[in-house]
Each structure stands twice: as C-alpha cells, then as structure tokens.
C-alpha cells in the first residue's frame, strides 16, 4: 500500500452501505475537484524529496557508493536540489 493510500484510509475511513462493500456517495463532483487540487498543490512529503534526491544522486554522481552511504552534508545538498526541482514542477501545475 502506498503512503498516500495509507494516509487517505487513516484520514477518511471507508463509508459503505451496511452489510455490503458498496461505497455510499457522500461527495459531489466539486468536492472531488477540490480534493484533487489540494492534493496536487500540497506541500512536498519527505518521501518525495528523498526519492528525488536518490534519483539525482544516481544521475549526477560518479561515486562508487550508494546514496544511503553519503555523508550528511552531501545528502543535504542532494535533498536541497531535489526540493528545488520538485518545487519547480509543482509551480508549473499551479499556474
């Protein structure tokens, strides 16, 4: 289960008709649109930044060691780069 799925289930428990697995309709299309917009513009999660930092390290580092073996300072630098890239992408969807 993804982090997002787990968080969604914790925050919004399933609303089903009693004795069935059928979901009750409790939201209209505007609610769903608003939820989508909030999700697309939400602050970055640490897991997103970490995943992007690992990717950037793999793309641009000539090191012969893995990202989890990187010093704290170098790790922070890659995380900062990742945040810049992800923030830029996020701003593109907010326009």
Summarize the helices and strands and which ones pair or pack.
Blueprint: H1 3-11, H2 29-41, H3 46-60, H4 72-94
What would your notes on this structure say?
The chain is mainly alpha-helical. The protein has two domains: 1-42, no CATH class; 43-95, no CATH class. The protein has helices at 3-11, 29-41, 46-60, 72-94. Helix 3 (46-60) crosses helix 4. The two termini are 31 Å apart. The model has no long low-confidence stretch (mean pLDDT 85). This is TetR family transcriptional regulator.
Q: Please give the radius of gyration in angstroms.
A: 19 Å
Number of discrete domains: 2
End-to-end CA span: 31 Å
Mean pLDDT rating: 85
- Please describe the biggest sheet, giving its number of strands, its sense, and whether it closes into a barrel: none
- Summing up helix and strand content along with how strands pair, one would put the structural category as mainly alpha
Question: What amount of the residues lies in strands?
Answer: under 5%
Tell the overall outline: elongated
| Total number of strands | 0
The tally of helices reads: 4
Helix residue percentage: 55-70%
Q: Poorly predicted ranges (pLDDT <50, ≥5 residues)?
A: none
Elements, N to C (H/E): HHHH
Summed up:
The chain is an all-alpha fold.
List keywords for this structure.
4 helices, 2 domains, mainly alpha, 95 residues, TetR family transcriptional regulator, single chain, 63% helix
